[in-house]
Design a protein that fits this description.
Blueprint (H helix, E strand, L loop, with lengths): L2 E6 L6 H11 L4 E7 L10 H11 L6 E6 L3 H7 L4 E6 L2 H18 L2 E6 L9 H9 L10 H10 L3
Parallel strand pairs: 1-2, 1-4, 2-3, 4-5
Subcellular location: Cytoplasm
Family: Belongs to the bacterial CoaD family.
GO molecular function: pantetheine-phosphate adenylyltransferase activity
Length: 158
Amino acid sequence: MRRAVCPGSYDPATNGHLDVIERASRLFDELVVLVGVNKSKKGVFEIEERLEMLREITAKLPNVRVDAWEGLLVDYCREHDIAAIAKGLRSVSDFDYELQMAQMNRELTGVETLLMANNPAFGFVSSSLVKEIAALGGDFERFVPPIVFERLSAKFGR
């Protein structure tokens, strides 16, 4: 069975994230959308909220499951017999960072990384920008799935 993990903070999940998840799910028998837990970082959404939204967003993808993990991604891969990491790339700076991570992950455990070029329609979309637009009262609906729009709007009292 070909298994991969698609890691991220997903705070919040965007349409760009969903595009990468959908495309990666067609390449593997099972894809785990993995929310990384960083207790030193305070997100807009709690981990359980992110998991719940991601489960709703990916419900139509039968080979996708959602999980959370605190620690090294390669340790998760080793414990769950996952041989590949799928990541999206928006820019050259993403590539520089992700290439270094891919090489380190392969060196640590042999896990391979698939770097997927983004859909140009989402190349400028990031969770940080979406949160900033939402906090300042701007229109961000087209950048996120409907459930994320509802929940993020509620967080900022819209």
